[in-house]
Design a protein that fits this description.
The complex is a heterodimer.
Chain A lengths: L1 H26 L6 H18 L4 H28 L6 H23 L4 E2 L4 H4 L1 E4 L2 E4 H23 L1 H11 L1 H6 L4 H27 L1 E2 L3 H16 L4 H26 L4 H16 L11
Chain B lengths: L2 H17 L18 H26 L8 H16 L5 H23 L4 H21 L11 E2 L15 H24 L1 H11 L1 H6 L4 H27 L1 E2 L6 H14 L5 H21 L2 H4 L3 H7 L2 H15 L3 H10 L6
Antiparallel strand pairs in B: 1-2
The chains are: A mainly alpha, B mainly alpha.
């Protein structure tokens, strides 16, 4: 039960961390607005789900599709209008995404209100499945399955397609790829949009996972996604996947076992930060990293 | 302007700020009430405080080139330790301030030693994580000591009488002004000193500093600790000004706001950070007033929603600033003063 809940949480982290890690690996852009993509995905899903009538699964499918589409469009637009003009000026790029994150979170709050809104997910999501003698909420299983699918899709994309090869080569050595006459910028836009899709998917699933949506949630999850990226090693998708599982599970176990003992419920979050400190002391480049970040 | 003219202008400005509590003058449009009113003085005091906190962050980010996303942690340590020591433990003000600064110093040395093992973006994320841990601690309220989401009001029983009550806001204002002066003196002195030169060298090219036989790590840790302690002092002043602690000041939003302040003013120039911090705090406070004013309420809904969110306006301004005015206010001033030599 704890294990699956932890993995479900880890799956959400992974959906954000995968995009973060790839954009950083390829272009050294740290995207603070990545959490906003999650928020955008969640609110799109909510808007569609509450305005479309019909079968709950049809609604859910439409909401999911809508949020993926909007996530891709928003991410690509951000890359083209804000990131690209600041090409190679890394600190400014970070600053722009910071400003964007502030502005869009505030805009969401202005448009939808600051309070969490209940999210109408299909009844199945709230039911439980018996798994190895433990009851597990289905929304956790859905999150894990989605993260697994994204991981597999990314692996196939990176390994077997032409664009995937360009991305991998670009992470390895961007100058060399450019010198060979390949447009890394376009690959980067693609990666940015893919990251937006994964984050929006995370947003739609997080809405089911938590049962509601909230303008601040993107930022909250983003911090753990950052931790996951650093622990996993910047630029590595598989490292991010392993680290996401580890962080999610550890958070749940620490909350369960130490929460009572310490007398307050922050044990999981603190344990994750401690894990980060230990990883940095022992292995500053992260689990899968090759060079110090 | 010549050097003397700049000095004269700064001196004049300081005298003006010092006597502000005696000026019973209305400034229509800029402040809601007369300058001598407690409300205006509190707003000005907050602006001065954040000018100084932004300055402490500029020491780290602008001068040494360390992009930290966790500066709110030091400010929050100042705010909460002062409040807890005064309200829960009934200490005297002097002992409380010393305790808060010492605790900030120790914490900065320990956390700085860990986070400075990585550089660049990873350093930014690690500092963010540590600050987040601090924020979570405050929110979760271990042993009921921080007041959790509710915040912690200040028990004024053990404060000197001059710092208690709305009529005495002017003394708090002067404390904020003094804090800004102390911080500015320390920062200008340090940046001109030998370690300050090394900080700037680390920002420009860390490898070369290493080749010259110096250890960048030690110098970076020094900068980290100094800026943390100065920010903690700012937290103490802030807590006295607003009379309590609220968990909102522990979150990553404040760290990002400090970054915005420094970039708004112009990173690495020191005075730019002060102007940026002052201006940001002023806008933040006044835009809230604007949001609830009748002008905004009369607008159509699709305009009202974004303009009602101060952070939306500030965030959008910031994006435009980074895109079109790199160098912030200080950069713009330099361009006006030296139009031909820019390239």
């Amino acid at each position: 039960m704890l294990l699956v809940t932890g993995l479900g949480l880890g799956a959400l982290y992974f959906l954000l961390a995968a995009g973060l890690s790839l954009t950083y690996g390829l272009m050294r852009v740290l995207n603070f607005a990545h959490g906003v993509f999650l928020t955008v995905g969640a609110y799109t899903a909510w808007t569609v789900a509450t305005h479309v009538s019909g079968n709950e699964w049809v609604r859910f499918g439409l909401a999911l599709g809508g949020s993926l589409l909007v996530g891709a469009v928003v991410a690509a637009a951000v890359e083209l209008t804000l990131i690209r003009p600041l090409y190679r000026r890394h600190v400014e790029q970070v600053l722009v995404t910071v400003g964007l994150a502030l502005a869009l979170t505030a805009l969401t709050q202005g448009a939808f209100g600051a309070d969490p809104r209940p999210y109408p997910s299909p009844g199945w999501m709230d039911q439980v499945t018996l798994l190895g003698g433990a009851t597990v909420p289905n929304s956790r299983l859905a999150a894990i399955a989605a993260a697994g699918l994204v991981l597999a899709a990314l692996a196939v994309f990176l390994r077997f397609t032409r664009w995937g090869t360009i991305v991998r080569a670009g992470v390895e050595n961007r100058q060399m790829v450019s010198a060979l006459g390949i447009d890394v910028q376009r690959a980067f836009t693609l990666v940015f949009a893919l990251g937006g899709v994964a984050a929006a998917l995370g947003g739609a699933l997080a809405a089911s996972y938590f049962g509601n949506i909230d303008p601040q949630r993107g930022g909250e999850v983003l911090i753990f996604a950052f931790i996951v990226v650093v622990i996993g090693g910047l630029g590595s998708v598989s490292g991010a996947a392993v680290a996401a599982g580890l962080v999610g599970v550890m958070q749940q176990f620490a909350n369960y076992y130490f929460g009572v003992w310490w007398g307050f419920s922050a044990a999981g979050d603190l344990a994750v930060v401690a894990l980060l400190a230990i990883v940095l002391l022992v292995r500053p480049q992260g689990l899968a990293g090759t060079a110090p970040a | 302007m010549t050097r003397h003219a700049v000095r004269a202008a700064v001196a004049l400005l300081l005298v003006g700020l010092a006597v502000t509590p005696f000026l019973d003058v209305e400034v229509p449009g800029v402040f809601a009430h007369s300058l001598a009113r407690p409300g205006t003085l509190q707003l000005l005091g907050l602006c001065l405080t954040f000018g100084a906190v932004a300055l402490s962050y500029d020491l780290l980010f602008g001068v040494t080139g360390l992009l930290s996303f966790g500066h709110a942690l030091w400010f929050a340590i100042g705010v909460y330790l002062t409040d807890i020591a005064l309200t829960r433990w009934h200490w005297s003000l002097g002992a409380t301030v010393l305790f808060a600064l010492a605790a900030a110093l120790v914490a900065a040395l320990v956390l700085g030693a860990v986070s400075l093992r990585v550089t660049g973006i990873a350093f930014a994320m690690v500092t963010l994580a540590f600050a987040q841990a601090g924020s979570i601690l405050v929110h979760k309220n271990p042993g009921g000591i921080t007041g959790g989401e509710e915040g912690l009001g200040l028990d004024v029983a053990h404060l000197p009488d001059l710092l208690v009550g709305v009529v005495n806001t002017r003394y708090l204002y002067w404390i904020a002004l003094a804090y800004l002066l102390v911080t500015a003196a320390i920062c200008w002195w340090l940046v001109g000193s030998r370690p300050g030169r090394v900080w700037q060298a680390v920002r420009e090219n860390e490898r070369r500093v290493e080749v010259m036989g110096l250890r960048p790590y030690a110098f970076k840790l020094f900068a980290f600790a100094v800026s943390a302690v100065l920010a903690a002092l700012g937290g103490t002043v802030y807590m006295l000004l607003v009379g309590g602690a609220s968990p909102a000041i522990t979150t990553g939003s404040l760290s990002l706001a400090l970054l915005v302040m420094v970039v708004l003013g112009g990173a690495g120039t020191l005075w730019g950070a002060i102007v940026g911090g002052f201006l940001y705090q002023y806008l933040d406070q006044r835009l809230v007033a604007l949001a609830s004013s009748s002008v905004v309420a009369g607008l159509p809904a699709w305009l009202r929603a974004p303009l009602g969110e101060p952070l939306f306006i500030l965030g959008a301004l910031f994006v435009g600033l980074v895109l079109f005015f790199p160098g912030g206010i200080a950069g713009a001033v330099t361009r006006v003063r030296l139009p031909r030599r820019a390239a």
